[in-house]
Amino acid sequence: MACFLVPMMLAIITTILQKAAKTLAEKIKLGLLNTLLWGGVILLALEHVWHGEVVPWPPFLTAMANPADIPVMLHEMATIGTAMAVVSVAVWAGINVVSYLMPKIVAVKEVYYKKPPEVV
Fold this sequence. Notes:
Distance between the termini: 70 Å
Structural class: mainly alpha
Number of helices: 4
């Protein structure tokens, strides 16, 4: 129903941080995290619109129309929305770790697996 709101809030925060601290954002590849988060938010919002869970008239979320559905919506936001945000951050962190370690691994391989010059 509204699980995309949790990653959206994180995306808004990271976008503001990216604009405020440009050098730090470039160093930690915050733009990549923003791309992951905003892409997921857009796809989920479209999916929710497709299934009629989000509508273009107030209260916008169909779960808000019936007060009995609000606890279900909040539970979905707390579980699924938080899980999606955590997975996005974990993927971003993994990409950062790999991009940090890859040049070091290549340098070590070049030292240990250097081919002897060919004899002509």
